[in-house]
Amino acid sequence: MKRGRKTKLTKSVLNKLKATEGKAYTDKTLAQIANVTPQTFSAWKAKGSTAKAGIFLLFFELLCDLEVALEVRVIDSLMN
User: Fold this and answer.
1) 0.90 cut: is pTM over it?
2) How many CB atoms lie under 10 A from the CB of residue 40?
3) Structural domain of residue 50, as residue ranges?
């Protein structure tokens, strides 16, 4: 049986973060959007970076996708 609190990281939170795609938000701002402290956000990233499955892996992959989308947007704006 697992101990401790249930995580606040849900699919709803992932959807809120996904809606920020293409915007240059800091982790602190993303934590505010997720309604958690920056420390919790950082802990989620750490868990996600080593997860093999589950919500934390999805979270980490989403952050990577958001970063790539922002880089593409920046490069595109520089090319035009």
Assistant:
1) no
2) 15
3) 27-79
